[in-house]
Amino acid sequence: MRTISKCISIVSIAIAASLGAAQADDDPIGDRQAIMSSVGAAAGLGGGLMKGEIAYSPAAGKAAIAAMRAASLTFGDYFPNGSNTGDTEAAPAIWDNRAGFDAEIAKFAAATGTAMEAAGRAGPADLDAFKAAMGPVFGTCKSCHEGFRVKN
Fold it and tell me: What keywords were assigned to this record (predicted)?
């Protein structure tokens, strides 16, 4: 139980930090990196749950989904023209194919919206329900990274 509480705390802190950063300054690269950090924390929790590395609980599942949902609602706003240079892994394709990028962000938002609905108030009842809700979200992450993130 201690591990789940720790994971939920980490995701909650990451969400708060990303939202605070997004409101605190005029640094779109830093803001989107902060938001992506919250996504990374949620993905780590979700992946750990799916792999059985972390014992599943509805609250942990809900925390992972909620973090992804929060990010999906604002993330696309932090790629204005001129924010394509500097310390960023954002690929030039974001600005060269804005419609394609916006479509990927819309898929992310739709998948997280569906996952939130499936999670209900208390979170997915069991691991299978969590996998069904979170799988499509992870799929949108993968497809966006393939086309719109600099490959290292």
Answer: Electron transport, Heme, Iron, Metal-binding, Signal, Transport
Per the structure, the count of domains in the chain is 1
What are the structure tokens assigned to 66, written together? 């909620």
Round to whole Å and give the CA distance between 52 and 59.
Answer: 15
38: domain CATH number is 1.20.120.10
Residues flagged as binding site: 141, 144-145
Residues of each annotated binding site for heme c: 141, 144-145
140 and 111 in contact (C-beta within 8 Å)? yes
| CA pair distance 123, 95, nearest whole angstrom | 36
Q: Please tell me the distance from the alpha carbon of residue 13 to that of residue 34, in angstroms, as a whole number.
A: 11
Q: Which of 64, 58, 51 is nearest to 7 (CA)?
A: 64
pLDDT in tens, 108-130: 999 999 999 999 999 999 999 99
